[in-house]
# Entry
Amino acid sequence: MLVQNNSKTIEQTDKLGRHEIPAPRSGFSHPPKRAKQDDSLTKKRFRPSEFLAEKLITFVAFVSFAFIVLIFVFVFSEALPIFLPQEEKIAAAQQEEQETYGEEPSAQPEKKKTQSVEFSEGEATVKNLLSTSWQPVSEQPKYGLLPLFVGSLKVSLIAVLIAAPVAILAALFTAAFAPKWAKEVLKPAIEILAGFPSVVIGFFALVVLATYIQNTFGIEYRLNAFVGGIALALAVIPIIYTISEDALGAVPKSFSEASLALGATKWQTALFVILPAATPGIFAAMLLGIGRAFGETMIVLMATGNAALLSADPFEPVRTMSATIGAEMAEVVFGDTHYNVLFLIGSLLFIVTFSLNAIAEIFIRQRLMKRFGGAS
Amino acid sequence: MKSKKNYTGALVVGITGLCAAAVVALVIIVMANIASEGAPKLTWEFLTGAPTEGMTSGGIFPAIMGTFLLVVIMSIAGVPIGTITAIYLSEYASSKSVLARLIRFAVNTLAGVPAIVFGLFGLGFFVQFVGRGLDSLFTGDVELRWGQPNILWASLTMALLTLPVVIVSVEEAIRTVPRELREASLALGATKWQTIRKVVIPNSFTGILTGGILAVSRGAGEVAPILFTGAAYFLPHLPSALSDQFMELGYHVYIMATQSPDVEATRGIQYATTLVLLLLTFALNFSAIFLRYRIRKRSVA
# Structure
């Protein structure tokens, strides 16, 4: 490599017009021509290895992008058959019918009736998807997504209602009041909490938390939405805390200095100046927390009881969208309606989390704009 | 008036401080519970033995081995792609590059996608599409070899899940390589690729390592993506080929705590397995934090 480098430097000096140096040794360089020397100073020489490296790196970057796109395309496309070939299926079925009708014309009206009943209740029509019961494995499968959606929403809201006050106030404490030692305890604790595998939190909720809550509140069901919500709160606290603390820390120092100079105390400044100034960021933190809670699978799968009930009672078992996928995907037949419906649930999960993240992003950007606007 | 204000002040500080203390207490309670219940069962035999007597006793060696293989295959697939993408983003892409902007957008989106959606993708794409395709190509659908969940598909799914972690952390590390080093290299006549290979990559090696470790820690802890792409309840032997299924620590905890015939009887095993998983992710996370701290210190100095 050293030798190669040397030859390269010689070429370089040669280009600069030092004639006492012998002609370049490198294979692909042209003999120096006086007329073109100015060109070679400004023009890039074609180097195959350089070209190859750049193209290869760009290609790999493109591949990783392509895979990411593929995820979205694939999950959505697997959900599509629910809506698209419905008519084809019916048409195919009717054709079959017609063939048999030719032989037994008397059975025609009866058969048609049973067929239409089967299609309206058995297949995943839009009406079926909007119904209120989820019974995918039965004679007449019902794919009502409503109880699952409500279940996800219920658990996520419980989680954020518990996590947000704790995390935001803890962040305010860190940003405004905490002595150095407290920060040095809190930061690693949050990092450890963020590093907990979700299955560990789920296990803790299932074994310890559920029993404890059942004993203290005297609830009928051991595993319910409330237990799942608390467990999810454990997973959500680090997210809300970290982003809130970022937002609180980004409030310009001049704000709090002005407030203190006007005679406000430290806590008044924290509560009435720093906290309001950081509101967009804190709101974004909460949205991201809901997004995380909505998509989380293992915790709810283990701690919520997984019964697809449609109720508002937080102490009843629920089945969330993510847990439904986790619990049922392993058993479905590939290409079945049930399979497609589970992909539809996956697409919905994706859409919900994506929109929440996008809205949060807008809020975070806004905060930054404000900050820079204020500074200039 | 003044004393009243002081009371409110003390109250505000007290309540916020209490919340902070509650977070710390929660972490300590969870850890103490798992450590105290899991430690008695955590013996050398437990770590190196296979489950016996219908999973009611014995060790978790196959699950540890499975987790290890999973993260190794995942890293082999994911870390190079992530690193090269990060190099593209920070070295080659201009600020106006459409591809770079698309990649950044996709990476941000990918980081927010629920883990279970990756599992769906793994099943639908790798197992059913690629796997079935390979089978019909080579054996003509006679034998189901690749078209079923296995360790390769699980690892590739996990590699996709951890791709954003690698890209973000490597890019951050590359950005801490001082501009003077690059300029010095270019001024000596080295080409761009030579500069990247001899200056940028060696100087951001710690960052690449950090990215890899964080990815491994994430991959070892996630269960949702492998639920139906390759993890198995119990296997009598270790996976010997890429088309084998495997046991995994997190999946083992889940399955033992919810699906095993006698959940109460195996509580000790569940706790000990959880403890092993927790210790593993902690060890990985702490080494990543330590390495990152070293990178930051260098970039300041």
